[in-house]
Specification:
A hairpin with a 2-residue loop joins strand 17 and strand 18. With about 450 residues, the chain is of the alpha/beta class.
């Protein structure tokens, strides 16, 4: 079957140009520049006044399945992803059971095949004693190794020097994606603030407890280990200006992810949103937010992810100690970043590079992330037009809340094609469709 997307403004590989895109079955068959559209398509989608971009690849999500499905599950969150223009996601290993064994990894792939509306893969989680399994991992099936380095998540905290050296020494050919916060510093700060303010310090203390020092100390150690072992390191959800400066000499080997939440919110937003924007590492001051925004265009930031992490709203009650950390953002990541394009923070072409091209390039995704003939037809049509507001009925995530609740957007995701299938259109969402397992390094 041939589908023609005509009269679009296509954004791809640093260019925006008028043209048409032809899909044949699951692949992009042709891209035609200019005004004259080809004939002979079985179906035509008119994208006049719209931008067409590759499907977003979110390198950092927590879909909570298996084991935590009261909060979210692969079906609900992959649906939210599709509504947000995300056609591929990489899920994190801190589920129940944790994805730290081959058996748990295979189970997740089975769940993905059964439930995911868009394309999927899963990080393998490092522990203090499972690095010997790395050589048994299929490099064509997973994006990389997730390392909770100095930040406790269940029992996945890796805090022994011997284990860290073995992980960095044995990770190839995978990229290590590291959560970098120093637990000792965090615990010391928490004890000090509890002594001063009681058992549950107010939310404004969260970025002081999970401090700049905690981030810098752990990130520096990760960089040193990567250099020592010639390993490829991807630092997740960078939050400070000082960390960005560390990456400058090593951009080919050491890369940084910024999340939509850290790019959009800053310290002043705690007054308005409280623990709804409590995440780890903490959202910090506007100076750091501004530095992250600058990093989008100066090369310090390589990828924009979400760290999409749904919790039930009742779990977000309390302060810096009792409220859980994490927020759902995947459905609103693309439209939020398009707002920053409108504000002049970054060009649209750079947004596409950071959300589509670079995740594919850094994690060596096969045949996705670009508008190219022969590539999978993962395609998003976005349009700026009639304003709409985030209300509960709009939210697709199972938890049914968002820090963007009440926000009014001008941009919206109009159409989503996943592997050539018209998954989301103005006529609705195809709930029966399932995505594909992503391939790497082919």
């Amino acid at each position: 079957m041939k589908t023609l997307i005509k009269n679009a403004l296509l954004v791809n590989e640093g260019r925006t140009f008028r043209g048409h895109l032809l899909i044949e079955d699951r692949l992009i068959a042709d891209i035609i520049e200019g005004d004259e559209a080809p004939s002979g398509a079985d179906r035509v989608v008119d994208a006049s006044g719209c931008y067409v971009i590759p499907g977003v690849i979110d390198d950092h999500v927590h879909f909570r399945e298996p084991g935590l499905t009261r909060k979210a599950d692969i079906e609900s969150e992959s649906r939210a992803a599709a509504y947000g223009g995300v056609t591929t996601y990489f899920d994190m290993p801190n589920t129940v059971p944790q994805t730290t064994t081959l058996e748990a990894l295979y189970e997740k792939f089975q769940l993905g095949a059964q439930k995911s509306h868009v394309n999927y893969s899963f990080f393998f989680g490092a522990t203090n004693d499972n690095y010997h399994l790395f050589r048994k991992l299929d490099p064509h099936r997973i994006p990389g190794i997730k390392l909770f380095m100095g930040s406790s998540t269940g029992n996945m905290l890796v805090d022994r020097d011997e284990a860290l050296n073995q992980i960095f020494a044995n990770a190839a050919p995978f990229r290590i994606m590291a959560h970098c916060e120093d637990t000792g510093i965090i615990n010391r700060n928490m004890a000090e603030f509890k002594a001063r303010y009681g058992d549950d310090p107010a939310i404004w203390t969260h970025p002081l407890i999970r401090s700049e020092e905690a981030c810098l100390t752990s990130t520096m150690k990760a960089i040193e280990l990567a250099i020592l072992h010639d390993a490829r390191l991807h630092v997740a959800h960078v939050t400070t200006a000082a960390e960005l400066e560390m990456f400058a000499p090593f951009t080919s080997m050491i890369t940084a992810e910024a999340t939509v939440g850290h790019l959009y919110f800053s310290l002043v937003d705690y007054d308005r949103l409280g623990t709804k924007i409590k995440v780890n590492p903490a959202i910090k001051n506007f100076r750091d937010c501004y530095a992250l925004r600058q990093g989008l265009t100066d090369g310090h930031v390589s990828v924009i992810g979400t760290d999409h992490a749904p919790h039930l709203l009742e779990e977000k009650q309390g302060g810096a100690a009792k409220a859980v950390s994490g927020m759902p953002m995947i459905q609103f990541s693309l439209v939020t970043m398009l707002e920053l394009v409108d504000e002049g923070v970054l060009p649209l072409e750079r947004l596409v590079e950071l959300m589509c091209h670079n995740p594919a390039r850094l994690f060596e995704v096969s045949g996705r992330g670009y508008l190219r003939p022969g590539y999978a037809a993962d395609i998003v049509v976005v349009e700026k037009g009639k304003p709409w507001q985030v209300i509960e009925e709009v939210i697709q995530s199972k938890c049914k809340w968002s820090p963007m609740m009440g926000h009014e957007y001008q941009w919206h995701v109009r159409d989503v094609f996943c592997n050539g299938h018209h998954l989301l259109s103005p006529d609705g969402f195809d709930d029966a469709y399932r995505g594909e397992a992503v391939r790497f390094r082919d």
